[in-house]
Amino acid sequence: MQKDWHLDSWRDFAAAQQPEYPDPKEVEAVLAELRQQPPLVFAGECRKLKAKLARVAAGEAFLLQGGDCAEQFSQNHAKIIREKLRILLQMAVVLTYGSLKPVVKVGRIAGQYAKPRSSPTERIGGVEMASYKGDSVNSFEPTPQERMPDPNRLLRAYHQSASTLNLLRAFTHGGYADLNMVNAWNLQFVKNSPLGLDYEDLATEIHRTLKFIEACGIDSRRFPQLNQVDLYTSHEGLLLGYESALTRCDSLTGDWYNVGAHMVWIGDRTRQLDGAHVEYFRGINNPIGLKVGPTTDGPTLVELIKVLNPENEAGRLVLITRFGAAKIEELLPPLIRVVKDNGFQVVWCCDPMHGNTYKADTGHKTRHFSDILQELTLFFAIHRQEGTVPGGVHFELTGANVTECLGGAADLKEEHLAESYETACDPRLNAAQSLEMAFKIAHMLRQ
Ligand code: PEP
Ligand code: MN
């Protein structure tokens, strides 16, 4: 166990972005109830994910992490969960073929309910109110009353995470992930896409490979490798009361694990070296992520890595870089070099979403497909140049046909944003844009 760490040691440090609840006693009662709840994941699963991420760090596997910016309680039905899983599975097949490596699949799902915000309040319709901080904190409804933080929402977040994960486990091991079926969805997509020809070669190759396997007598329905997948869960570990109430000592190893998700990450706004988040995260044994934004300097990153991964364990730490297409060339190479010079084992993962957000003339927060693709392209090129491993990608996406990000084969324009703008926080790639992105990455990986 890490020196001087205990489950509540974070309480001695300043915690950014925590809700201010009207009644602290009520919060304590909720946290006491959460401490009694069963784990959502097992420590052994977290260790398995860590081992897979160690392979990613070594360049022997590829990481795909994706899902909503903010999950919503009202969006918890089977169809929506199934569509999110489906798009991740479709992308994973394309990426597996492109990289010829196992793809480690991690959802921003079953717990992604808390959001850090740049401003604690916002003005809507002339009324000043608390910003929406995710369904586990307050309601998206724009009234001062609904925006009051309510600790009971933490319990609902736990229960909805449990039911989401339960369904995901059923789908991923009950036949829904069969490779032939996922491939059939991809062929359908290519047939319908306006830029289908660009993707057809790869889709046809994958299809022929599967037919070849079948012709050799291998029936996907009889092989778990071909009809089941492991999907891991992740979310930003923002609300430290909630996260520590779901942190348990593993009876097998005596180590502490966050049992609310397989992987949790520290956001770009809460990675202060002397802050409560870093203190909490250093003591848990899950694989963890660290968002690395434009204000991260080399010396700070080195200190953060030493605190968060003192044993330099491979698979423990995923650096999720989010600089923006315009800044990545200037900001990523020096950080890669400092990590390399120190001999740190990390997974480098590209989040091409959060550095490319802007406000459209219509007032919607959006991102352009071409900026996202440009940041990814540069991420792969820079790592190739530096001789390091571009380990994975991190997307905000959904399986539905939303109109939140611009561009893509359907060439979504600003005037289309209002048609189906459903996110409660940041704009997500829709199903077609997500799969297109996977095809583009697969082409890059094959070069
Ligand atoms: C997010 O991933 O939704 C997020 C808030 O990212 P970041 O911490 O990188 O800004
Ligand atoms: Mn976001």
From TrEMBL:
CC cofactor: Mn(2+); Co(2+); Cd(2+)
Cofactor: binding comment: Binds 1 divalent cation per subunit. The enzyme is active with manganese, cobalt or cadmium ions.
Keywords: Amino-acid biosynthesis, Aromatic amino acid biosynthesis, Cadmium, Cobalt, Manganese, Transferase
EC number: 2.5.1.54
Binding site residues for phosphoenolpyruvate: R108, K291, R322
Main EC class the enzyme belongs to: transferase
Catalysed reactions, as listed in the record: D-erythrose 4-phosphate + phosphoenolpyruvate + H2O = 7-phospho-2-dehydro-3-deoxy-D-arabino-heptonate + phosphate
Binding site for Mn(2+): C69, H354, E396, D426
Pathway where it operates: Metabolic intermediate biosynthesis; chorismate biosynthesis; chorismate from D-erythrose 4-phosphate and phosphoenolpyruvate: step 1/7
GO biological process, one term: amino acid biosynthetic process
Pfam families noted in UniProt: DAHP_synth_2 (PF01474)
NCBIfam families xref list: DAHP_synth_II
Protein name: Phospho-2-dehydro-3-deoxyheptonate aldolase
